[in-house]
């Protein structure tokens, strides 16, 4: 199945209350995403629209080659997303002077499966690299604690992104 398109005047599926063109639509078109929460919302919307390229592009660069595009596409197509609730948005987990910033967004994504309403709860980690926010995917192999961090900070994984994945 191909990517679904929306009119820019349609309410955004991320449930921000904004039109798609003012919200996730601009991010899907390569516009800078200003925050971890906006990135999380735009990724949720991308799953609804089957925009797997966006899902991959917004995952931490060191992890992108580890993602299975076909599996992501199959999952997006087999899931009927029906709602999103932001539970908590923790910004600036790192000191503001740090070159790499981390944020965490906890959310509930509601979907239908076998005519039953289900909920997917996630506490996602995001990292800002060179001013661009990325999702850190805990489902793909991660560096060991003593290896360099996947964000390129030069720190060991356990002292950078790994420290926020607990």
Automatic annotation (TrEMBL):
SUPFAM superfamilies: NTF2-like, Sec-C motif. Signal peptide: none annotated. It comes from the Bacteria. Residues 35-137 form the YchJ-like middle NTF2-like domain. Belongs to the UPF0225 family. NCBIfam families: PRK00183.1 (NF001213), PRK01752.1 (NF002486). This is UPF0225 protein NCTC10699_02324. It comes from [Pasteurella] mairii. The gene is ychJ.
């Amino acid at each position: 199945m191909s990517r679904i398109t929306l009119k820019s005047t349609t309410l955004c599926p991320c449930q921000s209350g904004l039109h798609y063109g003012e919200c996730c639509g601009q991010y899907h078109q390569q516009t800078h995403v200003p925050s971890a929460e906006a990135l999380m919302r735009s990724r949720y919307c991308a799953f609804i629209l089957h925009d797997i390229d966006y899902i991959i592009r917004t995952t931490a660069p060191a992890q992108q080659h580890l993602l299975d595009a076909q599996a992501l596409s199959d999952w997006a197509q087999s899931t009927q997303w029906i709602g999103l609730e932001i539970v908590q948005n923790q910004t600036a987990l790192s000191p503001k002077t740090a070159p790499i910033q981390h944020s965490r967004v906890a959310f509930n994504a509601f979907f239908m499966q076998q005519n039953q309403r289900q909920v997917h709860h996630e506490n996602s980690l995001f990292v800002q690299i060179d001013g661009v926010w990325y999702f850190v995917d805990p489902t793909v192999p991660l560096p060991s604690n003593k290896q360099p961090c996947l964000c390129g900070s030069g720190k060991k994984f356990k002292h950078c992104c790994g420290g926020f994945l607990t």
